[in-house]
């Protein structure tokens, strides 16, 4: 044993000197990390758009997240039925893996023709996506209600959204609102969805006095941020301020009286006991399960929960958009497009564009989006509304989305303003707010400071 | 399917040349006994020593090359990245010391580091203490089924992936989970709470997961150490009139010095670099109550794509770990 034992002192010194030398050598010989050749001509200069898929056999490769596979396999089959020369090949990755890997996949050598993206990040700056504007003109997407495309338009700086080149479209939208348990709602005398915020707050009070849990919500992973944004937009009288902020427009500021008032109301709801005592540990798996089993009168969430709730009890659950402040006021709601993008290195750009047009307009494809994806297709105003069983939660979300589309009230999530604003700021700050550990004004100020530091301004 | 591979973060995108292994190798030339510098040793002896060095180097080379390629080179790259603004794909721009300054001006970071140190209590103090007690007790058991079973039970948590452990514990801690069910069944209904959503108890609750995971490792390692101790020492101590407590102090503890150092080092590093359990169970919440540097680095890298900032924080954490582990390692020196 004694023979091979190295003297600890010398061993450490050696390792250290090795590290130092390696680092020094690197510093001397290395140039800046990153692609050296990416300063070529910008990919955003669009080429002429063709609406033809040709006749030669083509395999269209689509990369989506795993839960989306049934939907896109069905859409692929429907597309193949219409265009026999195109075979759609769907591959998938777990959502988080996909989010993490997307930049590397798109900059690699084996690039799909269509990819599901969660956020643009630096994809536009790094010139990894195709500008779809020529196809929007060729297929007439530019004649449709434009708020459906706002969140996927990216400015020339690659950061600002809401205006600029179109880099993504999709089969449908996620939509947020409030589910209600019809039986429990009847018990507190609710015959129809509340028309104003005041009516909604009255119902919450009645539910509390009746010994029911007024609001079931997932406070562990961000559910409580939804009502905060709804309240903010109600008090502000318009989603304009939030939207400007979401899209990283210069000078956007959310530290306003409306935000402070929204935070104060949410904190008050918590004080009144409208949330469960353990709200900050309820996650997005537990909340819908508990709601489906009959706990909670209201459940603020999104239309992606509707198919599951219908399965748990068809006809038992309804859905309404968060009520406006005043009677007859404009409805606004957070929505998120299921965004598909065409990589800059895609081999079959025109076919990919044809597929994107198909999923937005074809009646079969639109039905698939609702029934398999739990998302609502937008498209032109005169497009057929996909049928859903009357009284189901799905049909309620579809109807709510048409109502929203007509009033052009689609708003992006505050969570999407920067890549980490949700996990690093909105979520922990809302948890502190509900626990009474921060004040509404400190809350509003902190969100704005973190936003600015995220954007590096 | 063809996209399932994870593209390496760095190599494909960087223009940096491969690891300069040669100068690095020369840097560690004196492996083994260092020749007595300045002494008047004979030339023959010096030559023998030198040739022995080169022989030793040959044996070390394969392992060192791997270490250099997969540890030292990436480490050097991280140091380099920390002086750039880079998203991992596009063009990197020099950032000077900005990334390093940000570390010391972020208000949340100090609390994250504090939490990591608080976790040492749970990851190190409790498991090593309880592991010592458990090992001493198991030593006195006769080899047989009972001793094997207790070893196995204690070691099982070490076999499970930490993510699985985190998920399972999240269920146990949930408002209607087993922990609260037991409290209600024993008439302690007033003490029930959503453990991981509670501002006071979230960090200790996460810490208990660490105790559960680390205890088995410490016990098994310490047990094997006790097995090495000459039984005659216990016998002699017993003849001198030492009771169990004194035998523990005079024989077991000194005999386990090396194992204790390994246990402490391993668990302290696990505490300071903790990531998986927290990412799965609390995501740093409620508020910032369980935030640790590991989660912060992950978010900077994969959410914000701020590789430079993430590298700076990672290097900072590495240095911090080295500073803490260094004195512990010195305690383990026998010469």
| Cα gyration radius of chain A (Å) | 25 Å
Helix count from the secondary structure assignment of chain B: 14
How much helicity do the residues of chain A have? 40-55%
Q: Give the terminus-to-terminus CA distance of chain B.
A: 55 Å
Average pLDDT across residues of chain A?
Answer: 86
Specify the CATH architecture of the largest domain in chain A.
3-Layer(aba) Sandwich
* Helical content of chain B (DSSP H or I, runs of 4+): 55-70%
What is the CATH H-level superfamily of the largest domain in chain A? Answer: Periplasmic binding protein-like II
Share of residues in strands of chain A: 5-15%
How would you spell out the order of helices and strands of chain B? HHEEHHHHHHHHHHHH
Shape designation of chain A: globular
Give the low-pLDDT segments of chain A. 1-29, 36-46
Q: Which chains make the largest contact?
A: A-B, 68 and 74 residues
Approximately how much beta-strand content do the residues of chain B carry? under 5%
The tally of structural domains of chain A comes to 2
Explain the overall architecture.
Chain A has helices at residues 8-29, 69-82, 95-107, 133-139, 182-187, 197-209, 225-236, 240-246, 257-271, 286-292, 306-312, 349-361, 363-373, 393-406, 421-434, 440-455, and strands spanning 58-65, 86-93, 114-116, 153-154, 165-166, 173-181, 298-302, 317-320, 333-337, 340-341, 410-411. Chain A has 457 residues and is α/β, with parallel strands linked by helices. Chain A has 2 domains: 58-168 and 339-374, Periplasmic binding protein-like II (D-Maltodextrin-Binding Protein, domain 2, 3-Layer(aba) Sandwich); 174-336 and 411-455, Periplasmic binding protein-like II (D-Maltodextrin-Binding Protein, domain 2), CATH 3.40.190. In chain A, the strands form 3 sheets. In chain A, strands 6, 7, 8, 9 and 11 form a 5-stranded mixed beta sheet that branches. A 4-stranded mixed beta sheet of chain A has the order 2-1-3-10. In chain A, α7 packs across α9 and α9 (257-271) crosses α16. Chain A is globular, with a radius of gyration of 25 Å. Residues 1-29 and 36-46 of chain A have low confidence and may be disordered. Chain B has 335 residues and is an all-alpha fold. Chain B folds into 2 domains: 21-81, no CATH class; 102-331, MetI-like (MetI-like fold), CATH 1.10.3720.10. Chain B contains 14 helices and 2 strands. Chain B has a two-stranded antiparallel sheet with strand order 1-2. In chain B, α5 packs across α8, α11 runs antiparallel to α14 (307-331) and α13 runs antiparallel to α14. The interface between A and B is large, with 68 and 74 residues.
